[in-house]
Amino acid sequence: MAQAAGGRLAGAVSHAGGLGFIGAGYYSRETLTTEINAARAVVGERDGRLPIGIGFLAWRLDELPRSDAEALVHTALDARPTALWFSYGAPGSIERWCAYAKQAAQAPQPSLFVTASTLEAFQQLQQHDCIDAIVVQGLEAGGHGLGSGQPRDELLLDVVRTTDAAHRPKLLSAGGIADGRDIAAQLTLGADAVVLGTRFLLTPEAAYADAQKQLLLKAQGHDTVRSMAFDDARGTTQWPAGIDGRGLRSATVDEYDAAAQHLSWAEQQAQQGRVPGIEARQERYRAALARGETERMITWAGTGVGAMHDIVPAATLVQRLAHEARQALADAHARLDAPIS
Q1: Per the record's keyword annotation, is Oxidoreductase included, yes or no (predicted)?
Q2: Is 3.40.50.720 the CATH number for 7-208+310-337?
C-alpha cells in the first residue's frame, strides 16, 4: 500500500489493536521520518517501541546507493518499530535485507516479515532463521504481486499441508480479504493472522484521494484486473521479473491492452517499458491526472472490493472486523453441533 498507507493510518490501526504498516517503498529518509512521527503522534510508544510496522521494497533498496539504502533502513530501526516487512526483490535480496536488519537492530528487535506468492517461495524463505513471519499473498490481492502466483486459499493450504506449524515462521494470509467472515475462513484454514490492504483504503486516514475512494465504493470484484498497464503508465517498470499489479480497470488499462493484445503475458514482461506507444500513453495519463480526471486514474484494488460499501475510521473498522470474525467462528461452531434435520 505504498503511497496510501502513511503514519496516520498505521498509527490508527495499531491504536485500535491491529498492527498498522507504513508503506515506505518509495520514501526518502525525510518522508519516512515525517510518517513515523505522524504514527507516533497517534499511537505513542509501548514498552520502549513504536507499535507499528514499516514496509520496504527490496528491489528499490537495491537500486539505491548502498549507503543510502542502509541509512533508510536505519531510519526505520531508530524508531524501534514492532516489525519491518521486505517484499519483492531479485533472488536472495529479501533474505539479505532481513539479515542486515537483524544484525543492525538494537533491542527490542523488530519482527521481520516477508512475502511469498508460491509454495516454493515459502519453502525457500522459511529456511532463513532471520525471518519471523511470512505473508502468503494470493492472486486476489490488490497492488503488486507475482502474476503467476497461486490463488490465496490454494497457496495457504499448500503451505499448511506441507510444513510443520511448530517449526515454521508465523503464517499470514493476504489477498481479497474484505470482512470478518473472510478473516474467520483464513484462520480456520490454518493462518495465524491475516493482512488486509484494500479495505483500509476506505478510511479517512488512508492517503488515497477522495476520487479514488469513490471509485472503490462503486466497484465490484470483476472490475479489477491484473495488468502491466499500471506500471506502464507511471513509468515504474523496474519491478522484478514476473511482478504485475491488480487494480480497477480504466482507460489506462484498455489502451495498454489494445497495444499489447498480440503479446503473451511473458512477452509483456520481457518488454516492460517498451510496449509500442508507451510515450503517448504516459503523456495522456499525466495530462488526465493534471486535469483531475478519474477515467485514467490508477486505483489499486483486490478482488474483495465488491464487498466494501462504506468509509469508516480505521479504529471502527478494526473493531468491526474483529467482531465479525468472532461472530463467524461462533456461528460455524454452532452449526457444527446442530442437527441437520
Answers
A1: yes
A2: no
